[in-house]
Write a structure and sequence with these properties.
Blueprint: H1 8-47, H2 53-56, E1 66-73, E2 79-86, E3 89-100, E4 105-115, E5 132-139, E6 158-160, H3 165-172, E7 176-183, H4 201-239
Parallel strand pairs: 2-6, 4-7
Antiparallel strand pairs: 1-3, 1-5, 2-3, 3-4, 5-7
Helix pairs in contact: 1-4
Length: 245
């Protein structure tokens, strides 16, 4: 093909980068669809009838299921999940055991985010002493977090860097529900604006458009460079032709 001579190096570069850019765009489209399905499932679970603590463990995938609780918090044993941020501020999430009286089961309730501006002084919080009726939902993490150090601080409230519900029940010597419950906004909650996803479907779609645009730009530059090189070579051959008048 005399009208297109891109050269070996640009061809190899395009062969390496173009599939990668297309794959990244397709991957972002898939992530967008996954997030859309996740939000739809969360909305459906929120509209469904609430569960009791003993029903949580009978469901294969209880994520986002609403739960109604009635009982008391254990004010003596509180966990502070470190390095949680809101609006650029560093803080902790407060997790406390809650005894559900109708079922007789212990559940670990995350009451929300508390700012921690001064690391030298533990954040302050209060625990209602009276019996409570609470609404919460089941939080199932997408995977196990990568943790450098699994050691916990001593004393109470106890600072932790990740939530392993089963390990916390073992520490307390109790047989509790194996899922964390996140409290819905209310009088007993601190800041409880829980994000369902870290990135919306529209954001993933925007990233997909960017990757596809880069792929199109790379292909356009490759074609332009190939045609330009061919024309330059053809022009040089014409000027060196001794038979040209």
């Amino acid at each position: 093909m005399n009208g297109f001579r891109p050269g070996l190096l640009p061809t190899l570069l395009v062969l390496a980068l173009l599939p990668l850019l297309l794959w990244l765009g397709i991957w972002q489209l898939e992530r967008s669809e996954q997030k859309r399905d996740l939000l739809a499932r969360q909305e459906a679970r929120q509209q469904a009838a609430p569960l009791t603590p003993e029903q949580i463990e009978t469901i294969a995938d209880p994520a986002y299921a609403r739960v109604h609780l009635q009982g008391r918090f254990d004010a003596e044993h509180s966990f502070l999940l470190d390095s949680r941020t809101r609006d650029g501020q560093v803080g902790v999430e407060l997790l406390q055991p809650f005894h559900d009286e109708p079922s007789g089961r212990w559940v670990l309730v995350n009451r929300g985010w508390i700012p921690w501006p001064d690391r030298r002084v533990l954040p302050t919080f209060d625990t209602p002493a009276q019996p409570l009726k609470l609404a919460a939902w089941v939080y199932v993490p997408p995977g196990k977090p990568f943790v450098f150090n699994h050691r916990m601080a001593e004393g109470w409230p106890r600072l932790i860097n990740h939530v392993d519900v089963e390990a916390l029940w073992t520490l307390l010597g109790r047989d509790g529900v194996v899922h964390q419950l996140r409290l819905e906004p209310g009088p007993s909650a601190y800041r409880a604006d829980w994000p369902v996803t870290s990135m919306s479907p529209a954001q993933h779609l925007g990233y997909a458009v960017q990757w596809f645009a880069l792929a199109a730009a790379l292909l356009a530059l490759f074609i332009y460079f190939g045609v330009h090189q061919a024309r330059g070579r053809h022009s040089g051959n014409d000027e060196s032709d001794p038979c040209r008048p």
